[in-house]
Write a structure and sequence with these properties.
Layout lengths: L30 H21 L8 H13 L4 E3 L6 E5 L8 E7 L26 H20 L6 E7 L8 H7 L6 E14 L3 E3 L2 E2 L3 E10 L3 E2 L9 H17 L9 E9 L5 E2 L2 E10 L2 H19 L5 E10 L3 E2 L1 H15 L4 E3 L10 H4 L4 E9 L17 H20 L1
Parallel strand pairs: 3-4, 3-5, 5-16, 6-15
Antiparallel strand pairs: 1-2, 2-4, 6-16, 7-14, 8-12, 8-13, 9-11, 10-12
Helix pairs in contact: 1-3, 1-9, 3-9, 5-6, 7-9
Length: about 425
């Protein structure tokens, strides 16, 4: 993935910067001019990543490409032990001291890209449908600007760039980063996530929980099958499976507070292959999402108990795999204060937007179990429909790349001022 970049020109690329808003503050030492000059290259990087996606846990070429880009900036990158993620420190002339971390996720989704664009995915069945290519490019652009700032002696804060694998699967890639020492000396951590519901130039901020907890549940039913003419001699697993997927979600909701926002949805159910044969195995799998931490803590025991209670009268044997996923992302108030000031400086006070808590999960939450920090939503909205997250048609307004890089640099500067 280290092939030469083809820079977008003319009609291929929109203006790299939205109209400036009142109250914006310039970046120091001419970084705005540098960002404007390098924006076509950053757009080309994003398109290269978009055309060459890799699934969670297999981001080896992506990691190598990121490391190559960082080396070209004069920065020293180190690969994670598996080779599918990158950590890069910008030490600002300081061998020791607190570190501010910035994180981007680099994996893609198992979807077929349906867009008719020059940078359409070249990998069958794999697509950057969640904006991780944008997150990666924004952090590379931020690294470029911070490297220049450090070279001029103007960076007052040690910064760590984290390019994380496997955000989309369990176990979470953030835990790999933490195990590899990614949070060593870190005192604050920040991340951006694409939001197609916000226009470019808007940043969604929220104190407290901004995402939901998310777990995976798999259930396997078994029992003696047989002829559909004699169900009394069998365990009717099709009937048992129907009870499982329809009754369990409703019963779980009756066992938790209504304002917990618990959502148990089965996305897979399978039983049998013949119309006149009762099978001896059946299965279902789904996700549990919940807005608050206490209910998330209690969910495994509640769900497994109710599954067993519902299945018990059918006579089926039940095996449950409850895979803990990720807690809610809970934004630290002081970190949101830093992001609010950074957003105002980078884009103007009108750019700060309230944002609701989402039912989506994000493994950035695991970092926040160890250090304070915050996740912000970066506006990438396009005018045409069909650009929602996790859709095969997802695309972004690429002006958001420069906006995100400028925002993260201001975040580093604001954090240094707050210390």
């Amino acid at each position: 993935m280290t092939s030469a970049l083809t820079l977008p020109t003319g009609s291929e690329m929109a203006s790299s910067w939205p109209d400036p808003l009142p109250g914006t503050q310039p970046l120091p030492v001419g970084l705005d001019k540098l960002l404007d000059a390098r924006s076509p290259e950053l757009t080309a990087i994003r398109r290269h990543l978009h055309a060459h996606p890799e699934l969670s846990g297999h981001e080896f070429e992506t990691a190598a490409y990121v490391a190559h880009q960082l080396s070209a900036m004069g920065l020293t990158a180190r690969l994670l032990p598996k080779g599918n993620g990158v950590i890069c420190d910008i030490d600002a002339g300081m061998a020791h001291g607190p570190v501010l971390a910035l994180r981007a996720d680099i994996d893609a989704l198992p979807l077929t890209d349906v867009k008719d664009v020059p940078y359409r995915s070249t990998v069958a069945g794999v697509c950057h449908a969640c904006g991780h290519d944008v997150h990666t490019t924004v952090l590379l652009g931020t690294g470029m600007l911070l490297a220049e700032l450090a070279a001029r002696g103007e960076l007052r804060q040690r910064v760590r760039l984290i390019f994380q694998p496997a955000e989309e699967i369990l176990p979470c890639g953030s835990l790999e980063v933490i195990a590899a020492g990614g949070l060593e000396d870190v005192t604050q951590i920040f991340a951006l996530h694409c939001d197609p519901n916000l226009p470019v130039g808007q940043v969604g901020l929220r104190v407290g929980p901004i995402t939901a907890a998310a777990d995976n549940i798999s259930v396997r039913l078994s029992g003696p099958g047989g002829h559909t003419a004699r169900p009394h001699l069998t365990v009717d697993l099709v009937n048992a499976l129907g009870r499982l997927v329809t009754e369990v979600p409703a019963l779980v909701n009756r066992r938790v507070p209504a304002n917990s926002g618990l959502l148990l949805v089965f996305g897979q159910a399978s039983a049998g292959t013949q119309y006149n044969v009762i099978p001896n195995e059946a299965s279902a799998a789904g996700t549990l999402r919940v807005l608050d931490r206490p209910t998330w803590n209690a969910a495994p025991e509640i769900v497994t108990q109710i599954i067993r209670e519902v299945v018990a009268p059918t006579g089926a044997t039940v095996d449950i795999e409850y895979l803990r996923g990720r807690p809610p992302v809970i934004n630290d108030a002081a970190a949101i204060g830093v992001l609010t000031a950074a957003t105002s400086a980078a884009l103007g006070t009108a750019a700060v937007a309230d944002t609701p808590q989402s039912m989506g999960g994000e493994d950035f939450s695991w970092y926040l179990e160890y250090v304070p920090g915050a996740l912000a939503r970066l506006g990438v909205g396009r005018s045409e429909p069909g650009s929602d997250l996790h859709r095969a048609s997802f695309d972004v307004d690429e002006r958001a790349i420069a906006v995100g890089a400028r925002l993260l640099v201001h975040t580093v500067l604001q954090a240094a001022e707050a210390d």
